[in-house]
Design goal:
Largest sheet: 10 strands, mixed
Shape: elongated
Structural class: alpha/beta
Protein name: Glycosyltransferase family 2 protein
Radius of gyration: 26 Å
InterPro entries: Glyco_trans_2-like, Nucleotide-diphossugar_trans
Oligomer: single chain
Organism: Novosphingobium humi
Length: about 575
């Protein structure tokens, strides 16, 4: 009722058959207002109570790690900015910490801070990487926290980080969530971060604002290359996180004053740090979408054969568009197409099969059993000659000639299980950007209905990263791994959740699944079969849902892609209230 025009538009588009457009209008009606985060802070955070609890809690710990906060007074930083950072330190509840102050050559003297211990780094430097190293060397704490220039610490930040250290003594890096804060102290734009995700970190630095690093690990790092000095901490973290356990602390510990500003120089420095890290692996980098870094992993010299499996029953116009796109609009050429015909009867379809079978790269395999998506794809996998299998729905439209090349670059990497593409609805909104386990006590598509031209939730839909699952509408996986985990479960998941089950089996076997947004395709979703909510499908769907919940515990699953502060019923990354 607050948005009657949008509600009326949603009804109109639903009645005229534009279901995706109707859902987008309905989603706009239900979006949270600007006060949602303030409501969450009041309802969930209860910081005064937490600060009081922390003050009583930490003195009773058997071990109290000493933390060294490194503050660099950069060239041009105002005394007011320094004062705000010092004030956030002086308000800390946890008491076992020190301040290590490094200064640039032109830094003005600051008033003596009221802190447990102050160490002034000898000498001055305008090189932030050098200041970081000197600060680590001068620190006396077990862990160091380099505080970014635009960052204020929440009063319970050091308490939560120290608590995580006590609980995870083998970990070397700890990080928390963050938000933005204005000069009046009003907080907004919370960034509830996922658990450690190395592919996401190469695309988007989500640690450096306020992270805790074990000092002995930092001292053991090789010297920061002079060319990377503008992103020294990020370069150090890329190297360090590849060798140690990384722990996410699901608390808002940092308030950023300039987090919304895009700095091209900082982005270029991050890209250089990533390039330095991935170059020995044969990869290259470039600037990605919305202030991110894109890594182009190498293609094997001998391109592997990919068997593209397309189950279908009639709907020849959809199928023809899909197959024509694969054959004529796909740059990756070492492919074969296996069309699994599940009882097509229309003359136009059978005529098309007869003609397309004349292409040496296309085979049509007949299977007249009742529709079972898992069984059809398992049949295709058994008949496939390729080293890799690409499961592809017949209602996929090829719009990006590099889609398969981009996915192959990911799937050949060591340790990778399944790779999924970004799928769009015909109206340009996102249909699939990775699958989050536990949404709706089952599984859901992350960022569904987000316009593809918008950054969305911290550009997550636009960068490659590890996910729990990807959709089988377009999935690439090694045939050997597919067989190793038993393929698709055609007895338990004939239609729904078979792709989720497969990905979770791959994950349980020690492989990680990758969402690759630079492979972009259009999905005319479920054009060729009834929806799961149709009266003829409900009983079967409920049975498959119950099996998913029993086998994988999805009713209470904590997906590392998600966050406990995000709504577990929403695919649009809204705050849980």
């Amino acid at each position: 009722m607050r948005r009657p025009k949008l509600a009326a538009e949603a009804l109109y588009w639903r009645l005229t058959g534009r279901k995706a457009r109707a859902r987008n209008r309905l989603r706009a009606c239900l979006e949270q207002g600007p006060n949602a985060y303030r409501d969450w802070i009041a309802l969930v955070e209860r910081r005064p109570e937490m600060v009081a609890k922390a003050a009583q809690d930490w003195p009773e710990w058997p071990v109290r790690p000493r933390l060294s906060v490194i503050l660099y007074q950069a060239p041009g930083e105002s005394s007011a900015d320094i004062e705000r950072r010092l004030a956030s330190l002086e308000a800390q509840t946890y008491g076992e910490w020190e301040l290590v102050l490094a200064q640039s050559r032109e830094a003005m003297p600051t008033r003596p801070p009221v802190v447990p211990r102050l160490t002034l780094v000898p000498g001055r430097t305008d090189n932030p990487a050098k200041a970081l190293i000197q600060g680590i060397e001068c620190a006396t704490g077990d862990y160091v926290l380099p505080l970014a220039a635009d960052t204020l610490l929440a009063p319970d930040a050091l308490y939560h980080l120290a608590r995580a250290v006590v609980a995870n003594p083998d970990a070397g890096v700890f990080y928390g969530d963050e938000d933005r804060i204005n000069r009046k102290g009003l907080r907004s734009h919370p960034w509830f971060k996922p658990r450690w995700n190395p592919d996401l970190f190469l695309a988007h630095d989500y640690l450096s604002a306020a992270c805790l690093i074990r000092r002995e690990d930092a001292l053991a790092m090789p010297p920061i290359h002079p060319a990377l000095s503008a992103a020294g901490l990020y370069a150090m973290l890329i190297h360090m996180t590849a060798q140690t356990e990384v722990v996410h602390v699901p608390r808002v510990i940092a308030h950023r004053q300039n987090a919304g500003l895009h700095d091209p120089d900082a982005l270029a420095a991050r890209a250089a740090a990533v390039a330095h890290h991935v170059a020995p692996l044969g990869a290259s980098t470039r600037i990605g979408a919305f202030g991110t870094v894109a890594v182009d992993w190498p293609m094997p010299e001998m391109q592997p054969l990919v068997s593209i499996i397309i189950p279908t029953r009639d709907h020849v116009r959809l199928l023809r568009k899909c197959v024509t796109g694969v054959l004529n609009a796909t740059r990756y050429r070492n492919i074969e197409i296996l069309i699994i015909d599940n009882g097509s009867a229309e003359a136009e379809t059978l005529d098309y099969f007869a003609r397309v079978s004349g292409n040496p790269r296309v085979r049509v395999i007949r299977d007249d059993r009742p529709f079972n998506w898992s069984a059809l794809n398992n049949l295709g996998a058994r008949e496939a000659r390729g080293e890799y299998l690409c499961l592809l729905n017949n209602d996929i439209e090829i719009t990006d000639e590099n889609w398969l090349s981009t996915m192959v670059r990911q799937v050949v990497r060591p340790g990778v299980g399944a790779v999924g593409a970004k799928l769009l609805y015909p109206d340009g909104t996102i249909q699939h950007a990775g699958v989050v386990i536990g949404l709706g006590k089952a599984a859901g598509h992350a960022h569904r209905f987000q316009p593809n031209a918008e950054p969305g939730y911290f550009a997550r839909a636009h960068v490659p990263h590890r996910v729990s699952a990807v959709t089988g509408a377009c999935m690439l996986v090694s045939k050997a791994l597919f067989r190793q985990v038993g393929g698709l479960d055609e007895d338990g998941f004939a239609v729904a959740f078979n792709d989720v089950d497969l990905c979770l089996k791959l994950q349980a076997a020690g492989y990680h699944n990758i969402y690759e947004p630079r492979a972009v395709l259009v999905h005319h979703e479920s054009k060729s079969r009834a929806r799961d909510t149709h009266s003829t499908q409900v009983e079967r769907y409920q049975r498959e849902l119950a099996l998913l919940q029993e086998r994988w515990g999805t009713a209470t699953y904590a997906d590392p892609l998600h966050h406990p502060a995000l709504d577990p019923t929403s695919e649009t990354y809204r705050i849980a209230l």
